[in-house]
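Handout, section B. The chain below has 406 residues.
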Amino acid sequence: MSTSTLSEIVESWGGLIQTGPFGSQLHQHDYSEQGIPVVMPKDIRNGRINESGIARIPEGKASQLSRHFLKAGSVVFPRRGEISKCAYINEEQAGFLCGTGCIKIEPPEEKLRSKFLFYFLGLRQSVEWLERNAVGTTMLNLNTKILGGLKVPLFAPKKQDEIVEILSAYDDLIENNRRRIQLLEQAARLLYKEWFVHLRFPGHEHTPIIDGVPEGWEKKTAFEVMDVLSGGTPKTTNPSYWDGHIPFFTPKDATDFAYAHDTEKSITEAGLKNCNSNLYPKDTVFITARGTVGKINLAQCPMAMNQSCYALVAHPPLNQHFLYFALVDGVEQFRSRAVGAVFDAIVRDTFKLIPFVVPDEKLITAFMEHVSPMLAQIDNLSGQVRSLRKARDLLLPKLMNGEVAV
């Protein structure tokens, strides 16, 4: 088995390492609600493209940038910031555009399988090499020259395929569980909307409407029905506060579905005592309040939280799970009231402006009887996804260095 740099592979056998379009080629006014998706660094999560909230440009504008289209098998990197992550483009995402803040790699498949390269780039040693060679102190930056200097093992194509087959089996199970989570959450959200937005709840035919709401319901504000609690960050210059066993939730850790568990950072007991965050219990609702406003999650385990979020605790007769679905359904009310000169933000007083209707307690109980089993399944499937990722990530270096034979 020999090694070669990415640049040598591309130059000798074909392929491509290319930066996305320059800022002068793609402006803010080019974006629209419909059209061709444009992959930005924020869209790269867990080795895939997260299409929730992805930016788009009209097809006419995209056709002018056709050299930046992504193909099935393209590998996409952020150019700056979180350079440790990358995404593999699947067949459904072929035709997306590589955004200004990204670099795409298209290796020559006959020599270097793109999926094998994707897995190799996920190795700790690959990530550490890129971080050592990136430029910048405040924010790490990559370019095509740096990325092209990474040395890659050139196994025989058959062995590359065998390694990919083993690792892809884990990814297929992860994706299957992710889709099951998506369907379960979608079903629960639709039920909430049916009962509490469209007011087609059991017995609605016989329930009179009084002052705009069904009899027995109360009109309040979000601030009146929940505690709005703050977070804080321990001093980053004190190493004794960091890399402990307490997950530290920030907007970067927000997920598209109910539960958040894995966090980029963790803190110690000393860190918790020396910041403005409590240790919030499982099922605390987190809402991101700055920058990316309105990402909502349930804590899947006890967590601390930074100052860019709020922790929300429901007042009876509401409970945490009902509060989660109510906030997810009404999140646009928060986003529309976000303010700020540099970036959007919501503050505690924002909750006083958000109307919140509290249904009859019996109806809340009936709703929870339907959705609690769904949330329990989501909780369980989320745990399986974490276990599969851990097993895959433990196996990855062993396959690459030959410790596990294929």
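Note. The chain has two domains: 2-154, 218-358. Compare this with the example in section A.
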